[in-house]
Write a structure and sequence with these properties.
By secondary structure, the chain is an alpha+beta fold. Helix content is about 15%, strand content about 45%. The longest helix has 11 residues.
Length: about 70
Amino acid sequence: MIILENISTAEVIQGEELELFIDDETQIGEVYLDGDLVFQHLESMNEDHLERALYTEFKVLTEVVDIH
């Protein structure tokens, strides 16, 4: 499980799959959690840049689920 907590608002979003997408023409980066758009960043050059921007806005936590 992935938990995103917005640093400024304390809003918490939970999901299973985090996807990063960058439009090469507009350089707008988008982050999706379970298919839902949760974050956008203008002028994203690459996924590393987008990921750093995400970490300035959100605390990103991953939780390991014990299957035993």
